[in-house]
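The passage that follows is intended for readers who have already worked through the single-chain material. We present the inputs for a multi-component assembly, then the predicted structure in tokenized form, and finally a short commentary. You are encouraged to pause after the input and sketch how you expect the pieces to fit together before reading on.
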Amino acid sequence: MSHRDLPTDAALRALIAQARTWQVGRRTLLQGAGASAAALALAACSTGGGSAKPSAPKDNSGSDKTLNWANWAYYLDEDDDGNYPTLQAFEEESGIKVSYDVAVDDNNTYYAKVKDQLALGQDIGADAVCLTDWMVSRLIGQGYVQKLDHANIPNIKNLSASLANPDFDEGRTYSLPWQSGFAGLAWNKEKLPNGLTSVEELWDPALKGRVGVLSEMRDTIGLIMLAQGVDISGKEWGDEEFTAAIDEFQKQVSSGQIRNIKGNSYGDDLKNEDTLAAIVWSGDVTSINAELGEDRFGFAIPDTGGTLWSDNFVVPIGSTRKGNAEALMDYYYRPEVAATVAAYVNYITPVEGAKEAMADIAPEYVDNPLIFPDEQTLSNAFIFRTLSNAESTRYSAQFESVGLGA
Amino acid sequence: MALTAFTGPVVSADASGARRGGRIALLLLLPGIAYLLLFFLAPLVSLVITSLQTPSETVFGQYDFTFNWQNYGEVIGTYSEQILRSFLYALLATVFALLFSYPLAYFIGVVMRRWPLVQSLLLILVVAPFFISFLLRTLAWKQILSDEGPVVSTLKALALLGPQDHITGTPIAVVFGLTYNFIPFMCLPLYTTLERLDMRLIEAGRDLYAGPATTFRTVTLPLSMPGIVSGTLLTFIPAAGDYVNASSQFLGGTSSTMIGNVIQSNFLVQLNYPAAAALSILLMAIILVLVGVYVRRSGTEDLL
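Having made your guess, compare it with the prediction:
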């Protein structure tokens, strides 16, 4: 920009001179910015050194009768008006106002959202969260969850013996199972009247571009590994077996056979028929069918085996309402309440006595192997072995890079 | 003259007045500077620092600052395809949005000039989509373009799509979504320049025996350059970093992931913050260079 000559009128010259002195020079601004940037850089470097575990705040449950519960979709009994009948009953009985939030779509993304607050011991806006075994294992290891007081949860006596002592939480000091379930195959009954029995059938050319899988690595890769003859519960397998499964997965993604890799939102794709067959979680299919009011989707555990997992209640470290959360857990460990929930969500209930209670509530479910699995069903379900931190990081990167097409 | 009457003291009190004026100017600038420091510079510095970290060997999910420049090489090596794809999609979306918006803006701003009421009505229609969250609009498109939706069924009936083809989860859907979402950003700046287009210059072109095409090329187009430049910038920059349209929750799939999705996955799923930060810085740097070259080439620096 070239400067025009100043006007000859002395008055105007003076005005312009005055205006010019008001301009802050570009150099001054840059200097200021540089100095602030340096200060900020110093500040940023000096923080974040401590890796001390956060400590739990005082429990205010006595005076604060509220509770925030974060959970997954299709995971609590719901009526046609969108109310949760068992939860309403709990609120009336206990006087605790519960805010139920379908906030978890994926263990990883939920963890990423809340981990910084957890590290600082702050409230994450949830006093009870249901997360999967391996994530609970990580949270316990990092000291991000509170110890449960079993005296406040007398119904813990109903906990199924097989779930009482997992390797990540012996004696259930920090966590309590909410529901367990299988990952298996779902299909659109109208388009695939013959159903599915094996993972191989998902790779049928006729289904090209109409197959969905879960974004939960342990379920999708677990099913593929089982189909390749690997015992995913055993400690024997390692990088080689995992990579073989990733290669198969990569092949099906690159060829366009697999359309979507998703968390709970896979339900939308099944409903609008973008996917006709998918790897899904056992109970969701029934919930989706109930929502649609028709028996549109089928579910089966593949003949080579499905994965078995549990989602567990934990109380995040920053919560000041642990007592209320424990009251909630105790309530859901009553057999008749557990049976009511199971009849709706169709997952495996961890509560002993729920089967007997189910006979009164919904007798048709008593023999449903997805809710009360028999020996045969359980023998075909495998728990993905616990991964070391290094394995977890590496495998998760491998799995993600397939989804990103990288 | 009143003017000369008050210049006297101003000239004499020049030095002290200037100092006071400078202070006031600084005071007025303070909120802006504070805003930039707090919401632009601080995150930027923190991002640069994060991009040079390496994972801690003892604590899972923690990173230590080690001046690890290799992070940049690694992400370029791993994700070059997604980076290139992002800019290609952004370019395509910008071109399509321009081709669509120019005639529209011309119609509203020039042809409809004599009917201001129609003009404002049409403008409202252009802005109307903003009344609904773009997430919801994109989800609606996902529904419309889904396999059993009206678009795919019609195209299949006309044999324009094969029996196994689909639209959602393909690059076509992503570019379509980007174009759709950014059309208002292209249209409004174009409208503001075309609305001020001096019709006498077009008449002059005609008087000088130029045909409509020549007039457009030599008169209308150069005069509307400021609108084109700001429209393309407003479209291209956010489109290159967009991760919603290309997300598999919306219109994208595994073959159409953009750099935004890669950053999201690294930040939220893989917890690989250094890689995500390095990609963000790279994205910013590339855009800065591209935009710098573009603005220089189109010779409109002083119009921005």
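Commentary: Residues 1-13 of chain B have pLDDT under 50 and may be disordered. Chain B touches chain A through 61 residues (CB under 8 Å). How closely did your sketch match?
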